Amino acid sequence: MRDAYHEELDSIGEGLVEMARLVGSAIGRATTAILDADLKLAESVIAADTKVDDLQRDLEARAIALLARQQPVATDLRIVVTSLRMSADLERSGDLAQHVAKLARLRFPETAVPRDLHATILEMGQLAQRLMAKAAEVIITKDVDLALQLEHDDDAMDLLHRALFQHLMDDRWQHGIETAVDVTLLGRYYERFADHAVSVAKRVVYLVTGEHADELTQDGGRPGAGQTEPA
Amino acid sequence: MRDAYHEELDSIGEGLVEMARLVGSAIGRATTAILDADLKLAESVIAADTKVDDLQRDLEARAIALLARQQPVATDLRIVVTSLRMSADLERSGDLAQHVAKLARLRFPETAVPRDLHATILEMGQLAQRLMAKAAEVIITKDVDLALQLEHDDDAMDLLHRALFQHLMDDRWQHGIETAVDVTLLGRYYERFADHAVSVAKRVVYLVTGEHADELTQDGGRPGAGQTEPA
Question: Which residue numbers delimit the PhoU domain (chains A, B) (predicted)?
C-alpha cells in the first residue's frame, strides 16, 4: 500500500516536471513568435496551454485523492501540499507564456517589439526559459543550492526589466504609445514568469528544509518587487 | 475532538474573511493614495501588507496542521485544501494593492494618473474593492448565486480595462510615455486583483458544488483574458 503510495507521489513529481517542461518550451516559443511575428507559432503556443491546464487539474485531483486515501503526515504531507502549490505556479506560468503569444497574434503581421528592444526581450525570454528549466531540475534533484541559485539568476531578470523601463522612459523613444504599452506588458509577463519559476524552486527548499520560504517567493516581500513598477 | 476540529475549520474561515477585508481596504486606500498623491496613505498601505502576509502564513500553518492531525476526507478535506488556495489568492491581491501604493509613492508629489483618467481609475479601484467585499460575503454565506454574480461583475472590470487601453491608444494622448507605462501597469494590477476576487468566489462554488471551476478562475481560460493585452 505504502509502495503504491510512494509510486503515486513520484508520478505527481513527474507530472510537475512535465508541466515545467511544457511552460518552459511555451515561453521560448512565444518569445520567438513575438520577435519574428510568427502567427503559426503564436497560435501553437496559445493552443498548447490547454495541455498545461489539463495536467494541473489531473495533478490536483490526484494530490487530493492521495490526501483522502493515504492521509499522509509530516514530510509526505508537505510533499503533497507543496505539489499543489507548485502546480498552481506552473499553470500560471503557462498563462503568462500564452499572454506573450496572444500579444504576438494581436500585432501580427507587425511585431510588438521594436528592433532596438529585440535583444532585451530575447534575453528576457531566454532567461525565463532557463529559470524554468532549472526549476524542473530542482524538482527532480531536490538540490537546495541550485534552488537558491535561481533567486540570484532572477536578479538578472529584474535588471533586464529595469533596463526595459529605462529604454521606455528615454526621451529618444520614438515608437509611440501602443508599442510602449505592449513592451510594458511584455516586461511584466516575463518578470512574473520568472517569479513563478523561482517560487517553484523555493517551494522545494521548503520541502527539503521545512523552512517557510514565502517571504522569498512572494512579490510583496521580494527585493525585486520594486521592479514590477517602473524604476 | 471533531468539535475542536470544526471550530478550527471555522476560525480558518474567519481568517480568510479577515484577509479579504484587509486587502479590500488596501485596494481602496491605494486607489485614493494614487489619485490624491497622498504619500502617507500610500506608505500605510505598503506597511499594512505584512499583516496580510502574516495572516496567510498563519492560516497555511493551521490548515496543514489540521490535515496532519485530523486527516479529513470528503468535504472537510476539500474545505482545507480550498482554504489554502483562497489564502494564496488573497495574499496575491494584497501584493497588487501594494503595487498600486508603491506606484503612488514612486510618483509623489506628482500623481501617476492624469486627470482625464481619474474617473476610470477610481471606478476600477471601487469595483475591485466591491468585488473583494462580495468575495468575503461569499466565504461567509457560501452563497453560490452571489459567487457566480462576481464573474458577471468582473466583466465590468474588463470593460474598464479595455476603455483604459483605448484611451491610451487615442491619438490625442498627450501625457507621454512614463504616464502611459504607469497607467498600463495600474490597469493590469486592478484587473488581476479582480481576477483573484473572482477566483476566491469560484473556489467557494467548487467547495459547495464539488464542480471544478478552474476554467472559470484562471486567466488562461477566462473570457476576460484577452483584455489583459491591449484590445
Answer: 16-103, 121-204
